[in-house]
Amino acid sequence: MKVLLTTLNSKYVHSNLALKYLYLAGKHVCDGLDIKEYTINNSRDYVFTELVTADYDAVCFSCYIWNIEKILELAADLKKARPQIQILLGGPEVSYDGEQVLRDNPLVDFVLTGEGEGSFPQWCRALAGDVSFDQAAGLVYRSHGRIYANPVAEPVNLLQIPFPYETFPCETDRVIYYESSRGCPFGCSYCISSLDKRIRSLPEERVKADLRCFLDQNVKQVKFLDRTFNWDKARTLEIFRFLMDQDNGVTNFHFEICADLLDDELFLVLGQAREGLFQFEIGIQSTNGDTLSAVRRSSDTAAVLASVGRLVLLGNSHIHVDLIAGLPYEDYRIFRKSFNDVYALGADNLQLGFLKLLKGTSIRADEKKYGYVYMSKAPYQIISNQFLTAEEVCRLKQIETVLDLYYNRGGFAHTLSEAVSATAETPFDFYEALAGYYYAEGFQHRSHKKEDLYRILFQFFGSMGRGEQFLPLLERDLKQTMNFDAVKKFFRKGWTIL
Ligand code: SF4
């Protein structure tokens, strides 16, 4: 049997760890198992031709919010081209309503729900005719015109999953994903990880052996997929210390952490890490108490803000913080406060995200309670709720655009540190005014080189009669960001955007 495991990643630098796990789980029962990864940016014809001409008996797609629409189209076309091919869908985007997915997509043959490492080999055996489909855990399938859904498999023991990078090379031009634990102890109502509260983790010795493999190969970045890496302080300390002891001077390790679980002992250890060894992603989401209670986030906001501030002050790790617009009880005015509270921390990256009402989450079940209106197709992003109008959500998206261009991408540090407080009551008001200017002038209609962003900011200051005041700071940032020749060229062209 020739069976392909495939997906459309959101970018080339991303890779899919789940496919590697399934390959390792299924290769003993299916000789002709293969993996191919594409991206959502590959042309439909390119991927379609690859799949049609390779003569597969079955193609299995890994489905997420960023690829589900394209995969459904591709799978249907593939079935039309080769009706004998069997199509299986798996992944979080089809796991919570497998029967509905089969009803809505008559050209799809199977949906595999739940964790696939145990059930995928069972499906392979059933496909080969060795067992019947009702023996494959989590499988949703058709038989005699009816749809059947088998009970989902028990969560797998992570120790039974082999380390994937012994079989698959660490691709140097891609982010390397690694998972040392599954599940999250917290219950945030908008997050599918909250549905798996039983944390399963690999023993520390196994984790260290796996990490040594990355260190020995000098890979650039390892991104832990663990949902809250520091849920267990002793384990966290042990792994941080190991990485600091074995540091190769090159590899960076990215962790999603809960900031209010950091204590003095952890800060003491982190303070000794090489600059660039660690990168932390911290979901703050909101600083409004009613909002956090409504989404069942139990974090202590004051402690979170204090810890993030301390991490930023240490100055040796890249700090990324997240806010989510569209949560309950957070109107435009309250969101402004959350934004200002978080902006004041001075993290390297502030991601302003928008609530997605994901399948399987309890906030989606509560949509009526909060008057949610959201996109009917993935990524199910908020359009409005009883606290934010659609126009306000769009205004926040405009703010997100300029925040990304000017704050997150870097290159404006001196200018922003002065201008934000000198020209606006709060940081939110500054970015709101900049977004208003940017969109009113129509700059959103084309992409801009970095140098044009300096010109736009200069013109924005000029619109307030303060262009000359900030010119020296803009020049300073420009000279620090661009090379000598580019700066010379910039000054030849001048400050007017053409
Ligand atoms: S948002 Fe983070 S802390 Fe909350 S349930 Fe999801 S993974 Fe856990």
UniProtKB/TrEMBL annotation:
A cellular-component GO term for this protein: cytosol
Keywords: Iron, Iron-sulfur, Metal-binding, S-adenosyl-L-methionine
Family matches, as SUPFAM superfamilies: Cobalamin (vitamin B12)-binding domain, Radical SAM enzymes
Domain called B12-binding: residue spans: 1-134
Molecular function GO labels: 4 iron, 4 sulfur cluster binding; catalytic activity; cobalamin binding; metal ion binding
Domain Radical SAM core: 170-400
Cofactor section: [4Fe-4S] cluster
InterPro entries for this protein: BchE-like, Cobalamin-bd, Cobalamin-bd_sf, DUF4080, Elp3/MiaA/NifB-like_rSAM, Methyltransferase_Class_B, rSAM, rSAM_horseshoe
PROSITE patterns hit by this protein: B12_BINDING, RADICAL_SAM
PANTHER family to which the protein is assigned, alphabetical: ANAEROBIC MAGNESIUM-PROTOPORPHYRIN IX MONOMETHYL ESTER CYCLASE-RELATED (PTHR43409), SLR0320 PROTEIN (PTHR43409:SF16)
Name this polypeptide is given: B12-binding domain-containing radical SAM protein
Annotated organism of origin: Hominibacterium faecale
